[in-house]
Amino acid sequence: MSSGDFFGLVRAWLTVHLPRARRLSPHTIRSYKTALTALLDYLRETRGLRLAEVTFDAIDHATIAGFGSWLVETRHLAPSSANQRLAAIKSFLAFCAAEDPTLVAVWLGVKQVRSMRAPAPSPDALSMTAVHALIAAPGQATPRGVRDTTLILVVFDTAARIQEALDLTPADIDTTPGRGRVTLTGKGRRTRTMPIMDKTGRHLDQYLHAFHPGTPDPDATLFYTVRAGRHQQMSQDNITYLLNKHADTARQSCPELPERIHAHQLRHARAMQMLRAGVPVPHIKEFLGHANIATTSIYASADNQMVREAIQRAASPAPDLAPAWKGDDDLILKLSGLR
Fold first, then answer.
1. Do 137 and 214 lie in a common domain?
2. Do 55 and 101 share a domain, yes or no?
3. pLDDT tens digits, residue range 299-336?
């Protein structure tokens, strides 16, 4: 099969099969597109293949196994992220095999590639001291300060995934005191309604007044940037940039803030806070929108502080210790739906 056949199937998979037949969200399709783009980068860097030379002949068990190792060793992806890329490639080849029986052997070979070994993840949650410092860092003196404070508060208070926060609209917000809530749309287009603190509701009211004056369009993007005079949804890169900008400021009073900040650390911090407050793990699972309680259980296994405090409370009195002493590729990518 030719390179044209390969990229024709890429385009059909990305623009027809995934959005129409499988009805996947744009966010999920973007992640699949990222996986294919990474595979093309791998073939170029390790095989010297230009896009016009990529065919199914270049794809077999050894190639995809090497691709997984390359993602971890050269691209420095976590094994879990590399496995997501591998799963996307396998999904693509399964689609190709269904479209063209001559590709079944390719799919069956790649299907046998083992996932990268991933150690049990430990959530890199921010401490509550760090969360408070980060929320306070933008200040309230400027419109951007109001926006950034509100965004950080909403992400923390609802434990939202970053894309869930970016997809919010004014219609998803209820700031009624004592009954405030935010409706998030998560993976698989599943929605969940999250209660919010009255303080978060007041910040949202202030934000809506400044950035969505009058009667807001209920379907407008809640958090946006302005480009060429038009409102556009903020990107994940925008969020990462502003979090790290404010972390640089907050670090002056809170040195424990890590050098790099990402939005998921706020989600982890909220989950750990709930766990330490005695909220049962099944309730936290629903709050976070996890499909499997095993995913939520990592917070319980990671929180040694709770165990330490319980041991201290249960310990019998003991004597004190003695005092111590101290060009072309662009066109192909566009035509195949990868750009």
1. yes
2. yes
3. 766 655 555 555 455 554 544 444 433 456 665 566 55
67 and 61 Cβ atoms separated by less than 8 Å: no
Are 308 and 281 found together in one domain?
A: yes
The dihedral formed by the CA atoms of 135, 139, 140 and 144, expressed in degrees to the nearest 10 = -90
Structure tokens at 275: 């766990």
Q: Where does a domain end: 76, 111, 146?
A: 111
Residue 333 inside a domain? The answer is no
Same domain? For 169 and 278 the reply is yes
CATH assignment at residue 48: 1.10.150
Percentage above 90 pLDDT, the chain: 66
* 274: containing domain: 128-313
State the first-to-last Cα distance of the chain, in angstroms, to the nearest integer: 23
The tally of CA atoms less than 13 A away on the side-chain side of residue 28 is 15
Instruction: Outline where the chain has alpha helix (H).
Output: 3-12, 26-47, 61-73, 79-99, 104-111, 128-136, 143-158, 162-166, 198-211, 236-250, 264-276, 281-288, 293-302, 304-314, 328-335
Cβ proximity of 54 and 1 under 8 Å? no
What's at 99, amino acid-wise? E
Residue type, 265: Q
